[in-house]
Amino acid sequence: MTDRLDDLLPPVEYITDAYRGADKLKEKRVLITGGDSGIGRAVALHMARERARVAILYHSDEDSAREAREGIEAEGAEALVLQGNTADSASCTEAVESVVARWGGIDVLVNNAGMQKAYGSQSEISDADWQAHFDVNMNGIFYTTRAALEHMREGGSIINTTSVNAFVGNDALVPYTATKGAIVAYTRALALELLDRGIRVNQVAPGPVATEIQLAFKDYDEDMLKDMSSPMGRIGQPRELGPAYVFLACQDSSFVTGQTLHVNGGMIANG
């Protein structure tokens, strides 16, 4: 499955035939924010192949949401597609309640929705832009998690999407990087809070990946987009992230909580 984003990025690969499902998430009820495209869609398809029931929350791209639904259903999985805005608390609660109404609860929550915008200096960052980054990237995680925890039981898993930028910094993405650092701290603290409930909380820190979010660089500095790479000499693919989320969602990671999986082509070594 491929999708051309832009001539400056390689075709997007969400999942391949080489990934073999093994019923690792059979009948699990999954909610993925930002699940219509990019990493979120890859996660949705991989979890569907593991026989989960998959709900995705998307913001506004109806075509992308339709394609994601078709992909989930092509895997033989039940799909629930919800429109909403993670920056809005009520919208997050409504999404959770829709999943619960359909399936009776939530076993896996993937907080993946995000935005980024590039800036040349602090003076270019407006109050509204700064707030928007935190509303979507961080507040949305809190809103959705708080609502979902009312319906999660022992054995549940919460997986947050942070970024390599939280660990190495990025001078062109200061607001985005700040939110990703906040996600790291939230993940660690929440993991400790939920130990007694038997709910695990972890995060994935992607490096540069061929997704729509990278097009934020197109109007800022096109050369940065052209040169985006990793120590492996290339940009990553969403399909290379999906299995990491499956691992953290299933019982293969039953002794893992409060941790970060770095999937970044070697940008972080032993971090």
TrEMBL record:
Family annotation (PANTHER family): NADPH-DEPENDENT ALDEHYDE REDUCTASE 1, CHLOROPLASTIC, NADPH-DEPENDENT ALDEHYDE REDUCTASE-LIKE PROTEIN, CHLOROPLASTIC-RELATED
Keyword Transmembrane: no
InterPro entries xrefs: KR_dom, NAD(P)-bd_dom_sf, Sc_DH/Rdtase_CS, SDR_fam
Gene3D superfamilies recorded: NAD(P)-binding Rossmann-like Domain
Similarity section: Belongs to the short-chain dehydrogenases/reductases (SDR) family.
Source organism, top-level taxon: Bacteria
Coiled-coil regions listed: none
Protein known as: Ketoreductase domain-containing protein
Segments forming domain Ketoreductase: 28-198
GO molecular function: oxidoreductase activity, acting on CH-OH group of donors
Keywords, comma-separated and alphabetical: Oxidoreductase
